[in-house]
Specification:
Length: 506
Amino acid sequence: MDHDGANQQLLSATAADAVEPRHSFIADENDIEPINGPRDFFREFYVETKKLWYLAGPAIFMSICQYSLGAVTQLLAGHVSTIALAAVSVENSVIAGFSFGAMLGMGSALETLCGQAFGAGQIDMLGVYMQRSWVILNSTAFLLMFLYIFAAPLLRLIGQEPEIAEAAGTFAVYMIPQLFAYAFNFPIAKFLQAQSKIMFMAVLAGAVLVLHALLSWLLMIRLGLGLVGAAIALNSSWVLIVLCQMAYIFSGTCGRAWSGFSWGAFRNLWAFVRLSLASAVMMCLEVWYYMALILFAGYLKNAEIAVDAFSICMNILGWIVMIAFGFNAAISVRVSNELGAAHPRTAKFSVVVGVIESTLIALVICLLLMLTRSQYPSLFTDSSVVKSLVNKLTPLLATCVVINDVQPVLSGVAIGAGWQAFVAYVNIGCYYFFGIPMGLLLGFKFGLGVEGIWVGMMSGTIVQTLVLFLMIYKTNWNKEASIATDRIKKWGGEADHLRPREDMQK
């Protein structure tokens, strides 16, 4: 079967529209046995925990370090001036946040395809998938570049204060190189994650973060370059990450997964675009949702103070959610690999372990936040008014941490199983038809300000999380493993566990 003879239909299978497989499903004998009693549960829990943390540990560290690149810049901007902090916050949250969501979402198509192909032994296809994603994401980056160029008038158009809009628009133009770094970084990350090659990315991210902090301090504070220094440091750090990751792949460490550049990357692009768009819609709706908090804060009285306080809370939440994103990556790899390998019970148990452990971690972090609510705002600002508002918002922040540490894990399950299209509809309904209107109603109509906006939007996340819980609870995992095998056949040939035994030995 031609590896590039991909079916032109959208291949995102959903829990709602999954049909009976068109071939007989053969479960692999290495799938875990049914769990009978607490002893079996805790034994398998320990085994799965080791597998999950082998992926989640480096992924969490990498996610925190990469997120901290922008957070460090924002932290130092708060010590340059309040307008610099507002400019960096708005650019990071609205302009770069919009682009980050689009790029991350389109790149997440590889989590389904690469993860399930790797689990089924179709390793040769991983490099071709990554190259197709590069083509699509760089084309998308070119279109998004105009958003950066015209950021200032667009921000003024949607009601941002002119001074903040002008400063954020100038900073956005400086940050165009970061946009194209995203286009290469996200496909590379998904390519390596599918093979469980996360440790290198974690070490690289840690080293670049140290260099970024030193360079940012030197340029922004020591040399007084302000926003120009921030842009130079942030762009340089992201470009360095991409170049080092490429060198790692090209060096031959990925074996059959990378066999060089191929013209096959340009074939059947439209089918791949449609799959990427389904993934993008799902992820973008999640990433943009809380980014909108910063935007709405700009419409309140004392907008600069509200934006600064909200941006600090979102910065803290962003760091903490990176832990959940690490679990998101790990559970996506575990579910996609196990479904691709025809291990439905193992895939299901991975979900249970991921949800339990992410919830426990979130509760510990909540306690730490509440205990340090009077101290941590000083890390971000010297304004006593802003620090007071952040202190007041901390209970909401703590509640949000619990919700947003569980929800990305459930989204990771959806990505690993290939449910992006269905979850996109769930996100639209819960976030944009319920959460945002509720937040605007409480914040503006009932005069509850930032707290009202946040409570309303958080309610949308709660509803979305409950829907995902219900969807996963009702999932037929045998059927999902069968669908994964069907998907692999269409995109990359026969799965190893369905091949005749003599073919597998060749």
